[in-house]
Design goal:
Layout lengths: L6 H14 L4 H15 L4 E7 L4 E8 L10 E3 L3 H9 L3 E3 L21 E9 L2 E10 L7 H19 L19 E4 L1 E4 L2 E8 L14 H25 L9 H11 L2 H12 L4 H16 L5 H22 L12 E5 L4 H5 L6 E6 L7 H8 L4 E3 L4 H4 L5 E5 L4 E4 L3 H23 L14 E6 L7 H5 L4 E5 L1 H5 L7 H15 L4 E4 L26 H7 L1 H14 L4 E6 L5 H20 L7 E8 L8 H7 L2 E5 H9 L17 H17 L2 E5 L6 H9 L4 E4 L1 H12 L3 H13 L7 H12 L4
Parallel strand pairs: 9-10, 10-11, 11-12, 15-16, 15-22, 16-17, 17-18, 18-19, 19-20, 20-21, 21-22
Antiparallel strand pairs: 1-2, 1-6, 2-3, 4-5, 5-6, 7-14, 8-12, 9-13, 13-14
Helix pairs in contact: 1-2, 1-4, 5-6, 5-7, 5-9, 6-9, 7-8, 8-9, 13-24, 16-18, 18-19, 20-22, 23-24, 25-26
């Protein structure tokens, strides 16, 4: 073949002219493959498109039998073409028929051709089809020829994405871009959302693919890379974070990629082959994603997210693109790799029907905020941000942790019925709002709700909760760009108490640090932040911060009841130190004539296992104890609840954890100390039933969980459950799990789950 040093540019220029001509789609495709074959001096050029049913259909060819167009097809993974599509990798063969994957299609007449080069047609790392050239002579195609064909394939990818090939797709068939996808994730927020995708950080659509001035494009690339590197260096020097959960190690990875010469060389090579800067970034990003997604090393696969984010940042540098929420549909399902709580609150609440996250954990603050807003959430939905396009139809099932992207009509109909059924159940739960929460045998159970923002407060009366068992004060700090002043804190706390209208509210002092990132506090990088400088440890080391918050709480609760509790207490002495700071604030306000709360209750969160050996001492020191079941379970079982590989490995209803909780109940009963439990375990009817069975009489949960839990307890004979459950927990010989026992008990005794 001839020298191709100018080949790609000539070919791309001719393809641009073809794209601008008013041609029918099939004629345009026929001319494209003809031009590619002529430019590359190939005897065959064929274009295969991936259909939704997994078949690769021949859409156009120059050199093979024209009658085979729209008839010849291969399955994904079948033959050389199917292998390329499945692996998203090119094949360059001098003797194609000797390759073990070769499959002969007699209708095409390709048996006389030996040399074969095929490249995947990629968009955002997804295989949409395959582009092939063939020759009779046996030869290996050069690297610049492979690069030329890969560059050309971008034109075809945009044709597919733009929907231009729908007109020539046979009736009853769909292209893969519109294929329905179902992905199982983790259920983080109850409910079902039907709507349309809004990508939190939408991919930038590159419209100008071909450049007219190589030197000018190379200069643009150099300037954009320089700006990108400076921005990353600035973030590292400030330890700034752009979203919750993004750590310094990620920024270090960004810097490594941004200075990687191999990456820059690929970008420059794509520009020299005729692409614009933006198209070059998209091509290299898509190629890298396609290669990395098949790697078996999990660490390298996870770095793919870092690379994607870096490439998207570079595209934004080049285009000046600023993400926004203009034109948000009224049934928006937000799809994101990760996001912070403040970013979710930037969207208009009335338009959001659900949230889908590739990352995140049930304890992430964006998840907590979403649940407080009553939004269904599914996390750990791997790959969703690449598979989804803005305005795709989507269903979020927060009950089962499933996401249906571009669902079939019968799936949509089934979920519409499910939503109607849920609405009827919610009506039944709403009817229970005023019903006293007593079990069938007359035991009164206090049901409270968790909150953290003013947006939560209307749900106090709507859910029928008797009060707020946990108000997370740190959310105000996390969504603010600067530290809230004392008057801003006081205003929030006073508003909470006013809207609670006399119902008790338990304020938890600041629980920041660890995964709860506050951008205006500089903190040292920690190898294990969940066990590090956070919560009460942070507050006692910053006594001015804690005193400011205590002062705001005391002033806000003037003439009312104030209940406050301290998070992550490890030693009882920490309570004494905090109480002394509280007493100083009481004395200060008294000296200046401020009205104080009419009553003050001082409590502690029981989250750290060391307190289990200080229970008597703890309960003598406080007015009440609240078990933080999320952290207590995590620390007891040495299981990171944010790690999807181990989060489901241990059961919160397992005997060891329930025995620990029973021990706490026994000491609280013996010392006559008020005991509450707030955490995920309280919010599901089955696990709430277990808590009642081991002796808890006060539990706090998300507002949406109160109706189902109340329905359960109204149908429960608690004395009968206790009589059966406590021996069962103590029994080390039983093969039946506690979860199985509870399910059987509910079935046998008509307990509503």
């Amino acid at each position: 073949m001839r020298d191709l040093s100018a080949g790609p540019r000539v070919l791309l220029r001719r393809l641009r002219e073809l794209m601008a001509e008013p041609l029918e789609p099939q004629e345009r495709l026929d001319q494209i493959v003809r031009q590619i074959a002529a430019n590359m001096v190939a005897e065959v050029c064929s274009f295969y498109v991936l259909r939704a049913d997994g078949a690769l259909e021949l859409f156009a060819t120059e050199g093979l039998n024209k009658d085979a167009v729209h008839l010849a097809q291969l399955k994904m993974g079948q033959g050389l073409v199917g292998t390329i599509a499945a692996s998203a990798r090119s094949l360059n063969l001098s003797d194609a028929q000797s390759h073990p994957a070769f499959t002969y299609l007699p209708e095409t007449g390709e048996e006389i051709y030996n040399s074969f080069m095929g490249v995947p047609i990629l968009r955002a790392g997804r295989s949409l089809g395959v582009l092939v050239v063939q020759n009779k002579a046996r030869r290996k195609y050069r690297e610049d020829e492979v690069e030329a064909l890969e560059t050309t394939s971008m034109i075809l990818a945009e044709m597919i994405a733009a929907g231009e090939l729908k007109q020539i797709t046979r009736p009853g068939l769909e292209l893969d871009l519109n294929r329905p996808v179902t992905i199982e994730g983790d259920a983080y927020g109850d409910g079902i959302g039907l709507g349309h995708v809004i990508l939190h950080e939408p991919r930038i659509v590159v419209t100008e693919l071909l450049n007219d001035d190589i030197d000018a494009e190379l200069q643009r690339l150099e300037e954009a890379l320089g700006s990108l590197r400076i921005s990353i260096d600035n973030m590292l020097s400030r330890r700034d974070v752009s979203m919750e959960g993004e750590h310094r190690a990620v920024l270090e990875a960004y810097r490594m990629f941004a200075h990687d010469r191999g990456w820059v060389r690929k970008l420059e090579e794509a520009i020299r082959n005729g692409l614009t800067c933006e198209a070059a970034v998209e091509k290299v990003q898509s190629d890298t994603r396609a290669r990395m997604i098949h790697m078996t090393d999990s660490y390298l696969r996870e770095r793919l997210h870092d690379f994607d984010d870096l490439a998207n940042r570079l595209l934004r540098q080049l285009t000046g693109f600023v993400p926004g929420s203009k034109g948000l549909p009224q049934d928006a399902i937000i799809v994101a790799r990760a996001m912070g709580a403040a970013e979710l609150l930037d969207y208009p609440r009335e338009a959001i029907r659900g949230l889908v996250l590739e990352d995140g954990a049930v304890t992430s603050h964006v998840v907590i905020v979403a649940r407080a807003m009553g939004i269904p959430v599914v996390g750990q939905v791997i790959g969703i941000a690449s598979l989804a396009e803005n305005r795709d139809s989507i269903i979020v099932d927060g009950e089962d942790g499933v996401v249906h992207l571009r669902p079939l009509q019968d799936v949509q109909d089934a979920y519409a019925d499910k939503v109607r059924f849920r609405a009827k159940r919610q009506e039944q739960f709403r009817a229970l709002r005023t019903v006293e929460p007593r079990t069938r045998d007359g035991k009164y159970i206090t049901l409270q709700m968790n909150a953290g923002l003013l947006v939560d407060l209307p749900q106090l009366s709507e859910s029928g909760a008797s009060g707020i068992g946990l108000f997370r004060t740190e959310l105000q700090f996390m969504i603010a760009s600067t530290m809230p002043k004392v008057d801003e804190q006081e205003s929030l706390y006073r508003n909470v108490l006013r809207q609670a209208a006399g119902s008790p509210v338990t304020f938890r002092t600041l629980d920041i640090g660890g995964d709860k990132v506050v951008p205006y506090f500089r903190s040292a990088e920690e190898e294990n932040p969940a066990l590090g400088w956070r919560a009460i440890r942070f507050s006692l080391d910053r006594p001015g911060l804690l005193r400011t918050q205590l002062r705001a709480l005391l002033k806000a609760a003037a003439g009312a009841e104030l209940k406050l509790m301290l998070p992550m207490i490890t030693e009882v002495n920490e309570l004494r130190l905090a109480r002394e700071l509280l007493n100083k604030e009481v004395r200060h306000l008294s000296r200046f004539g401020y009205q104080l709360p009419r009553s003050l209750q001082f409590g502690a969160m029981l989250e750290v296992p060391s307190l289990l050996w200080q229970l008597e001492e703890l309960m003598e020191e406080v007015d009440f104890v609240s078990v933080g079941s999320n952290d207590l379970f995590q620390f007891l079982m040495a299981v990171d609840r944010g790690n999807s590989r181990v989060a489901d490995r241990f059961d919160t209803l397992g005997r060891p954890f329930l025995r620990v909780l029973r021990q706490i109940v026994e000491v609280a009963n013996r010392t006559n100390t008020t005991l509450t439990l707030c955490g995920e375990i309280a919010g599901k009817p089955l696990s709430a039933m277990a808590l009642l069975g081991i002796g808890f009489r006060n539990i706090s949960m998300s507002p949406a969980a109160i109706g189902p839990v109340k329905s359960m307890l109204l149908s429960l004979d608690l004395g009968k459950l206790e009589e059966a459950l406590l021996p069962m927990i103590a029994d080390t010989s039983s093969e039946k799990t506690v979860r199985e026992f509870l399910m059987d008990f509910a079935d046998a005794n008509g307990v509503s789950l």
